[in-house]
Specification:
alpha/beta; five-stranded mixed β-sheet; 10 strands; 31% helix; globular
Length: 226
């Protein structure tokens, strides 16, 4: 992959082979960023997963950095007002199922009550491709609408390992205080440690790196973050 001049210049400002503490990495990523917009700070963690293993869950970061999420709740008519009162942007059943079938995805996250999943499950071609399908593993298929919506509005974020065993997750913005980004990174690494499969082998975490949206990655010494 060919990189631009600014990217290559930023590589000269640090040792790209060295592993840094979380605190050092957060400072470096901020120091070497070069884009003229408020870049997202992203964490990439490579995991050693067997074929039958996966890592997927949600968490709420201590320091938020994204705009308020638009939440769609698939529920029966008698629970629509409950969902809207909890902060859902949209709530309903047939009308929203039909809209999504037509390709509408003007929302950030979808929640469904269990009794709606028979119909919502048929929206896989639209929701699945965009990572919007409600799932009990992430707390988005639940009878407790108010709690789910409240947590999502507070910034509950889903994370999952891709087919290569890598978890990519946004942990902050360049404009954030470094201490806030550090706390977010440590919060995620601690949560990832708790989600380690019981039968995972030694060396579960292969590597951890931090970068801005446009900048180069900085390796993190994971042992320092445990």
């Amino acid at each position: 992959m060919k990189h631009g001049k600014k990217y290559l210049e930023s590589l000269k400002k640090y040792d790209a082979e060295k592993k840094y503490t979380v605190e050092e990495a957060c400072k470096l990523v901020k120091d070497i960023h070069f884009a003229n917009f408020d870049e997202t700070v992203e964490l990439s963690v490579s995991l050693k997963l067997e074929k039958n293993q996966t890592v997927r869950d949600t968490l709420v970061f201590p320091h938020q950095f994204t705009g308020e999420k638009r939440v769609l709740v698939f529920c029966k008519e008698d629970r629509v007002q409950e969902a809207l009162a909890a902060g859902a942007t949209y709530a309903g059943s047939t009308e929203y199922i039909d809209k999504v079938k037509g390709g509408w995805t003007d929302f950030d996250v979808a929640v469904a009550t269990p009794d709606m999943m028979k119909d919502v499950g048929r929206l896989g071609m639209v929701l699945g491709r965009r990572g919007l399908m409600p799932n009990p593993k992430t707390g988005t298929v639940t009878p407790n609408i108010a709690q789910a919506v409240s947590e999502l509005k507070k910034g509950r974020t889903e994370f999952r390992a891709d087919k290569g065993g890598v978890v990519h997750i946004a942990v902050g913005k360049i404009s954030m205080p470094e201490a806030d980004t550090v706390e977010n990174v440590n919060t995620f690494l601690a949560e990832l440690k708790r989600k380690k499969p019981a039968d995972a082998k030694v060396g579960f975490v292969r590597s951890v790196s931090l970068s801005s949206s446009m900048g180069p990655g900085v390796w993190i010494d994971y042992k320092e973050a445990e």
